[in-house]
Design a protein that fits this description.
With about 200 residues, this protein is α/β, with parallel strands linked by helices. It has a five-stranded parallel beta sheet with strand order 2-1-3-4-5, with helices on both faces. It is elongated and about 60 Å long. The protein has helices spanning about 15-30, 45-50, 65-75, 90-100, 110-125, 130-150, 155-160, 165-175, 180-190, and strands at about 10-15, 35, 55-60, 80-85, 105. The protein is built from nine helices and five strands; from the N terminus they run βαβαβαβαβααααα. The chain starts with 8 loop residues before the first strand and ends in a 12-residue tail after the last helix.
Length: about 200
Amino acid sequence: MASLSSQVGILIIDDDKEICDYMETFLTRDGFFVKTLTAPQDALEEVRSGSYHLVILDLMMPKMDGIEILNHIRKIDTDIAVIIFTGYPSLETAVASLKLDVVDYIKKPFNPDEFREVIDRVLKRKGLARDPEEQLHKVIGSTIRSLRKERGLTLKQMARRTSLSVSLLSQIERAESSASISSLYKIAVALDTKITQLFGAF
């Protein structure tokens, strides 16, 4: 299934290579096109390319600080979304960032799930929300996992109750596979719930 998120370009600018590698790994896994830069002076050429929808920018870097880069980015592109993240938050930099239309200001270290929520919120604001069908699979998967854990059931026990494989159940919970109505019915019966419950608040 094609997802809009696979077309979304994210540029990460941070002089810390470990942070760049970590963010590239989990954002690429989420289906984004990701490029990282540890040399902030290279960022402007990348922004000029027009390949990116979102810039994730560290504040404290040698040679050029984040606010200086942000000033240059805004001269090139006034619409691109920018998220600032920093290990040294201050009121001064927060105010300066907001004046330059930053969509969020995040403190390091960050929680990846919270960071994903920020990115989803930014993409929705820019009209780049993930494909609704993909979002539905995520909701179904997380609802099934929550209900299963509430009932103290393992995937193996669920497999025995539903006659579905552990592998398929795991893929459904991780939103890596779409479940048929027949499979959802079996899962709902195994969890002693209505099939409509599995759709959560979607």
